[in-house]
Specification:
The chain has about 240 residues and is mainly α. The chain has a domain of about 140 residues. The protein is about 50% helix and about 5% strand. It has six helices and three strands, in the order ααββαααβα. Strands 2-1-3 form a three-stranded antiparallel sheet, covered by helices on one side. Strand 1 and strand 2 form a beta hairpin. Helix 3 packs antiparallel against helix 4. The longest helix has about 35 residues.
């Protein structure tokens, strides 16, 4: 009679009973440490990249705001004059329009609006040529910078234009003498023309000539499974 054969002990059983270190499974060193494994650099790059965009946006907003002084000078030079006439009635000065049906006041608003639209288009082109990738901070800078530039242009034009005290001006020039009315922006919505033009032009340029996002791979690489405890790949 033949004695039954004793089955061999399972792998690593001897070492586990003796308390020795269990060798790592095959391929475990590759998990998270393979040379080709992707490494997350977003945490390292998002901070400095965002700070650079914010600085560039701040510079663009400041330059646009300061450019409003030039817009104010052009508005003062190109806007039509509104003629006024002063008269003395019962020892009181009265000022009225010389041409009650004239459209000079509308021309003043129209001149400011057209100049602001041109400044908005030029600023958008300049910003796009300097930084083609755009970004939320840069778009916000275009809107804020355009509004600040328009406000500065409005105040500069009023300051350079005729005196704002029309009664005192009428007294100075005399009764029945025509003089120019101060620059006045009747349609306050014109203050948004610069910002709107800058945003629209920049959005158009970015959509037509901006960098394109890479298209996704139609044949993605097969997903790799982590190896089992004895080296075989688990399903």
């Amino acid at each position: 009679m033949t004695a039954p054969l004793t089955p061999p002990p399972p792998p690593n059983e001897h070492s586990s009973y003796q308390g020795g270190p269990v060798p790592p499974p095959v391929g475990a060193h590759a998990v998270g440490g393979a040379p080709g494994a992707p490494h997350d650099h977003h945490g390292e790059q998002d901070g400095p990249g965002m700070m650079t965009e914010v600085r560039q946006a701040a510079v663009a907003a400041v330059v646009m705001a300061l450019s409003g002084a030039l817009l104010g000078v052009l508005w003062w030079k190109l806007a039509p004059t509104v003629p006024l006439v002063g008269d003395l009635v019962d020892d009181s000065w009265v000022v009225y329009l010389k041409d009650s049906e004239g459209e000079q006041a509308v021309g003043v608003d129209g001149t400011f609006t057209l100049l602001a639209l041109a400044f908005g288009a030029v600023s958008a082109v300049a910003v796009f040529l300097l930084r083609r990738r755009g970004g939320v901070p840069l778009v916000a800078a275009l809107g804020v910078g355009g509004l600040l530039g328009s406000l500065l242009a409005w105040r500069v034009g009023v300051w350079l234009g005729p005196a704002t005290d029309v009664i005192a001006h009428a007294k100075d020039v005399g009764k029945g003498v025509t003089f120019s009315a101060p620059l006045k922006l009747g349609a306050k919505g014109a203050l948004l023309a610069w910002s709107v033009a800058a945003l629209v032009v920049h959005l158009t340029l970015t959509g037509l000539f901006g960098p394109r996002d890479p298209e996704p791979d139609p044949w993605p690489a097969p997903q790799q499974h982590s190896p089992g405890p004895f080296g075989e790949r688990s399903a």
